[in-house]
Amino acid sequence: MADKIQHSTDAMPTDLKFSNFSEEHQIGHGGYGIVYKGVLENGKEIAVKKLHDIASLDDVKFMNEFINLMSVQHQNIVQLVGYCYETRRKLVLHNNKFVLAHVEERALCFEYLERGSLDKYLSDESSGFDWCTRYKIIKGICEGVNYLHNGPQDRILHLDLKPSNILLDKYNVPKIADFGLSRLFGETLSHHTTKRSIGTVGYMPPEYIDKCHITEKFDIFSLGVIIIEIVTGPKERSKRPDMSSQQFIELVHKNWNNRFQQGIPMYTSEEVCGLQLQLKTCIEMGLQCVEAERLKRPTIAEVVSRLNKLDAMIQKISPSLLPPKLPVVPASARGQVRIAKIGQWGGIGGNYRDIEVAPCRLKSLIIGSGGAIYSIGFSYYDDNGKQHKVGPWGGHGANKGVDHTIHLGPSEYLIEISGTVGPFTYAPHGVITSLTLVTTIRTYGPYGELVGNPFHIPMQNKGGSIVGFFARVGWYVDAFGIYVNPNLGATQEDEIGPWGGNRGEAHDIDVAPRRLQSVTICSHDYVNSLAFSYSDWSGHHHTTEPWGGLGGDTHTVEFGPSEFLTGFSGTTGHNVVTSLTLITNARSYGPFGQVGGTPFQVPMRNNASIVGFFGRADQYLNAIGVYANPEQEKIEQEVYITANIYLYHYKN
C-alpha cells in the first residue's frame, strides 16, 4: 500500500479486495461499471462501482476530476465518498506470447440507498405512491439537476438521466446517481458533438439522435420524460404521441381525480384544489421539457423557479400538502439531520395546524382527553438546541376533559404511537378517540376511549424517534401526523446506574449530553455534593447546580480538549456515596471522600466516554449514575481534523 491521506471522522473505504467481488452482492450495472453492495468495518453500508478497465485513462485528470466530484454535496445527489484502486501483474496473451502486464482495478464508493432505484416504484395513477410522494420526488429531482447545472462547481451534464439512475432513501427522498462519470473518463461533452454513444433510448432528445448534439437541454429532455413517467406511469406515457398535449393533460387529470376523490388518505376540498394545481403544473412542465425543438425547452433554473412559485401558492391554499421547511444543517459528528413528515391519521374535519421550525428532539407532551382526544400540545428542541412550545391545539369537546402531561427524560425517546379513530359527537367523519404512547423507557396511556378503527405507528428503524406533530383540530383532534428524526442512535446516550441508596431528591439533566467538560466534587468523610458542566449535541454549554449539601473540600477537574472520562469507580455506604474516583485517558483523579463500603465500577465499553450524571442527593450525594457516549473516538478525531474533504488513496 502506498500513501494514505487522512479522512474524516466516519470510517471510509480504505481497502477493497478486488478478488472478492461476487455476483450475489451485485445491485446494478451501467456503461462504466458494475455496482456492488459493500459494508465498511464500522457496519456502514456503501455502494461500490467497480469500473471497467479503460486502457487510455489519464490518471492525473481522473484524480483531479474525482476530487472535484467529491465536493458535490446536495441532498438530492448521491454522495461520492471514496475511491480505491490497485495495480497488479497479470499473465496475458500479447502477439501470440504470454507476457506479464500491469492491470489496474478501480472502484468508486457511494452512499448506499436502501430503497433502490425509482424505476421499481413507477406505476399509473390508480396505485403506488400517492400524489404528495410523487410531487416530492419530482421536485427533489429538479433541485438535484439544478445543482449539477448551476451549483458552485463547474457545470455537470448528467447525459443519462433515467429512473434507474435516481435512487430513493428510506423516506423516498430522491438522489441522482451516476453523475459526472463522463468527466471522470476524460470526456468533455458540453456544447458540441460526440462520436461516443451516451444516454438511454427513450430519454435522449431528437438533436442528439439526429446529430449527436449535446447541450444542457439534453438533461432537460430526459427530465421531462421522467416527470411524465412519475405522474402517469411508464405505460400511460406511451399514449402521449397519439394525442394532443391538451388531450393528454385531460386524461391525466381524469385518472388522478378518481384517486383524489375516492382514495386514501381522504382529502379536504382545499387539499384537492391544491393537488390539482400541482398536478397541472407538473404535467404541463413535463410536456414543455420534451419539446422536439431544443430552444423551446425551459432551463432547469426556470423549472425550479416555477415549482417554488407553485409552492408559495399551495402554502396559501392548503399548506398541509407541503413538506416541512427544514433548515440547512451542516455536517457534524451526527451526520446531516433530515426530518421526515409522515401521516395524517384520523378524520377530515378541523383546521390545519403545523410547526414553523423543524424539530430535532421531543421534550414533552400534553394530551387532553375524555371520551376522545380533545387537544394536543408539545415542546421540542430544534437542531440548534432552542426550545419551542406548541399548542395546545384543539378544544375540550362537549365536556371538558383531563390533561395528561408527559415529560421525556434526557435518554427517553418516543418510538411508537397507537390509537383509534371513530365518529364522535358533532364529528361524524371521525376524530382521534384514543392515543397510547410508547417510549424507550415506558408506555403512557391509553388516553381517551378505545372505540373505532385502530391504527399503529411504529418506527421502521430502531434508530428513529418521533420528534413533533402536525394536525387538524376543532373541538377535538380530528387528525394528526408526525415528524420523525431517523438519527436517534446518533444522539442517544447510554444511561448506566445508579449506585447508592434511595434517599434524597432525584436529580437529572434536561438536555442530552455529548461531552463532559468539568466535574466539581465536595467531599470529606463522604461525598457531600457533585456538580458538572457539559456540552450538548448542538454545541451549547450547560452547568448544573451542586447536587447535595454544603461542606467538605472542593475538588474541580477540568478536562482538556483531548481528555475524556473513560473510567468511574467508588464506594457506597448506607444511602450515601462514600468515595469517587475519576479516570481519564490521560490520568486518574481521586479518590475523593473516604474509601469504605461497597465498591462499584462503571462498566464502560470500548471507545465510550462518560458525558454526564444523574443521581439522588440531600445533605450528601446519596446515589450516582452516568450517561455514556459511545462516540468518544469521533470526538477525539474532531480535535485534530479540520478539513472537509478527504480521500483514501491506495496503490500497490
UniProtKB/TrEMBL annotation:
It comes from the Eukaryota. It holds the Pfam family Pkinase. Belongs to the jacalin lectin family. It comes from Oryza barthii. This is Protein kinase domain-containing protein. Residues 339-486, 493-630 form the Jacalin-type lectin domain. InterPro entries: Jacalin-like_lectin_dom (IPR001229), Jacalin-like_lectin_dom_plant (IPR033734), Jacalin-like_lectin_dom_sf (IPR036404), Kinase-like_dom_sf (IPR011009), Prot_kinase_dom (IPR000719), Protein_kinase_ATP_BS (IPR017441), Ser/Thr_kinase_AS (IPR008271). The keyword Zinc does not apply. Keywords: ATP-binding, Kinase, Lectin, Nucleotide-binding, Transferase. One of its GO terms (molecular function) is carbohydrate binding. The keyword Nucleotide-binding applies. Residues 21-314 form the Protein kinase domain. ATP binds at K50.
